[in-house]
Design brief:
By secondary structure, this protein is of the alpha+beta class. The protein has one domain. The protein is built from one helix and three strands; from the N terminus they run αβββ. Strands 1-2-3 form a three-stranded antiparallel β-sheet, with no helix packed on it. Strand 1 and strand 2 form a beta hairpin. The longest helix has 12 residues. The radius of gyration is 15 Å and the shape is rod-shaped. It starts with a helix and ends in a 7-residue tail after the last strand.
Length: 50
């Protein structure tokens, strides 16, 4: 049943547009892109980061 659920989720997510979201963690801005069930983290460089 777990496999069927995963397949169903993939179908629902498939075809959705990429979403770029920015969150602030400990003063650092983190940009993450959500796509077909995976999340890619891209750290945004800031002049305030030491």
């Amino acid at each position: 049943m777990a496999n069927e659920t995963k397949a169903k989720e993939k179908k629902e997510i498939k075809g959705k547009k990429l979403q770029d979201n920015i969150v602030t963690v400990s003063g650092k801005e983190i940009k993450y892109t959500v796509t077909t069930g995976t999340m890619v983290l891209n750290e945004i460089l800031s002049t305030n980061i030491i």
